[in-house]
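Last lecture ended with a question: if I hand you only a sequence, what can you say about the shape of the protein? Today we answer it with a concrete record. The protein is histidine kinase. Below, first the input exactly as provided, then the predicted structure, then a couple of comments.
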Amino acid sequence: MLIVRNLYLFLFLLLYSTTALSITKNTTSQKNSNKEKFILNYYDTVIDSLTSHKLFDKKDINNVLQLIKASQQLTVSQHLKFNNYLAYYHLINLNFKESIQFCQKNLSLRFPKNKNNELTIAYTYYFYGNCLLNQGNYKKAIQYSQFAIKTFEKHKFVDGWSKCKMLLANIYFYLKSYKDAENEINEGIQLFQQNKTNNYYMLVLTKIKILRAFKVQESISEIIKTYQELKNKPEIDDFFKIEINVYYIEFLINNNKLELAKKIIDETQPLVEKKNTIRSSDMFNWILADYNFATNSPLSNKSYFLNRITKSKKENDHQTLRNIYYYLKQDAYLSKNLEDLYYYTNEYELASKKISSDETKSEILELKTKYETEKKEQLLALNELQIDKKNRTIIILFSTSLTFILFGLFIYSNFKNYKRKENEELKKHFTVKLLENMEEERKRIAKELHDGINHELLTLKHNKPFSEHEINNKIDQIIEDVRSISRNLHPVMFEKIGLESSVKNLIERLKINNNFFITSEISYTNCLHSKQEIQLFRVIQEGLNNIIKYSNAHAAKVTLVEKEDFLYLEIKDNGIGFKFEEQLKSKKSFGIHSIIERIHSINGEIKFISNQSGTTIKIKIKK
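The predicted structure:
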């Protein structure tokens, strides 16, 4: 790479000095004219050469800036190329905001319509799309990649077209639309089957990433084959060797071949240090962390992850932030650091939410369908449709629409009846279950009275005389049994100490008795009636008991705060979650129904949010 850079700079100086000598023989005006003409002609060669060879250090950029300062007559086309050069430079260094600024400069310029300018702008859209992908803005990323593809297809420009296919494949990959991702990348690979250059391996490595998500065995075969190929190809960029090594190390870790994995890690590290790019360093540190966890060791490179957080936040790089927090929360789990575990789990969930919602995913897939539909319509537009055919189509569409509307009304009516019957059944089941639970509670109290208090009293009555000390002990035991029964029936001193203190006592008792991590955030000014407070207390009690029994969680949090005219309660855990609709219909859902009924009885609103990352119960009550 250094040889290539020096060669271009040498040619530049040679040509420039030769031109300068010839210019000195002419008049001053001729000197200036020839000098500017030379710089303008040479400018395109410099930019194209630096971009194609990825020469992006500060010396290269300064040389380009000096060329621009030397001439006052840069054309719009040359400005377009320079902005693209800097956009590409910042993209490779993961400076997404700066890269987007130069892309936006290009898109704001008016330029002559010709092939070169159109291709330059197509690359601008490609760079912009890559930045948006990393920021989690999938909808715009797919729009910009489609803009670029139209131009590359128009001019049959294979390099740009294949890169856009790879960009689309990555978008669909992060949306978990793996089949679409595979189709896009396969179209790109077909163009380079006979010419296995850097472009070919760039596409192959993207395909491996996609296959790992849903065709594991096929991805393993591709990883081993590509790893063997790249070992014997010195002309291929080290970046691609680093990436395939990372995939191969992952394969070895998954198959418990840890010694060989460590050997490949040690072989890869010098390549990463030599390449010295953020992306290659990220890949290497991700897999090094996986190796640490496979050997039940804490992160040996934790400082790298902590240092990456600042830059990722600055660039809104939510993809990288999610990866960082994933490894940090795993490290906290291994180290049994519950505070860090709770913090990094929350940060991981926040980064995941910022990437893309289900609604965004739906919109993006609609864009894909719209793009494909537009292409078909362009082909169909070449054939003129007859008027009578249009009329028949309108009649058919009207008839079909009417049929669908009537059918939809029929289905809706049946669905409403079904839901009504289902709700009646659930209410009936809840009532029966409530009565059964009341009866069970009575039996439990009777048993505790009979086996505990009754037994102790009979002992005092029939056994030999006790000493005063023994009598006092027996009486204390009976008092404690009575208190225990009373506590289960109604919180001790609830009316006197209030809701906030009762909740804190409950949390402390559950933490001690169950060895479970629970935190609370309570800001309450006794804004509810005591009857409402006891129902709210029972909801918190039921919610926390359910978390401890069923959620497999490591931690939970209770938040009770007042805002304006409402009181908000949130009970949250980091467990395995559950399918709310299915559980609600289950005959074992008494606890959930009990919580819902209690909240409805005090005119409150309740919402359950549950997934694989945990469950949150959100409650809103008017003060």
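Comments.
1. Residues 1-33 have pLDDT under 50 and may be disordered.
2. The longest strand covers residues 555-563.
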